[in-house]
What we know:
Elements: E1 24-27, E2 48-52, E3 57-62, H1 68-81, H2 93-100, E4 105-110, E5 120-128, E6 137-144, H3 153-167, E7 172-179, H4 183-191, E8 195-205, E9 211-220
Parallel strand pairs: 6-7
Antiparallel strand pairs: 1-2, 2-3, 3-4, 4-5, 5-6, 7-9, 8-9
Amino acid sequence: xxxxxxxxxxxxxxxxxxxxxxxxxxxxxxxxxxxxxxxxxxxxxxxxxxxxxxxxxxxxxxxxxxxxxxxxxxxxxxxxxxxxxxxxxxxxxxxxxxxxxxxxxxxxxxxxxxxxxxxxxxxxxxxxxxxxxxxxxxxxxxxxxxxxxxxxxxxxxxxxxxxxxxxxxxxxxxxxxxxxxxxxxxxxxxxxxxxxxxxxxxxxxxxxxxxxxxxxxxxxxxx
Length: 223
């Protein structure tokens, strides 16, 4: 699935992902091969610069050393919310690097771009869900900053991940732990074609001591 670069970071494809996004009004792009897949109609290189339908400009970039501290600060907010990730405390530096960088392709989003942004807007990682013979099944994790939710950025990252994963040679994507009460995420993944494989009862402990189920979701990239 690609070689590992120094300091936890992966080398991205020189061609980058494709981008075909319902939430995007315009992207700076160069045309790629003529694919029939809804996920692969425009060929792009990182960084990807897009303008959303509401006029916001967003830049997607492969993460590097400059993104460690901004992403760590961003992830602290997500952990403290407790609505989408299993951590019940903010991970220390080594745990954070293992979770977000080591053995993964990590993409970050800034509005309007990395140079002028005051904070990170979105991020995702992409990795094999299992090693060896099952290494063609991908897993990914996403975070969206609270003030940038419901603006199409989640869909932008979701479709970019699917495009990028296909380019990297993955044949499918599985989400192991979609919180059942995270209705926005479930709705987005269903819109992108994911189907439910099963339910893990009472998999997630909430702050009030009660439990919620987790959903396993799957999408083939072979079509």
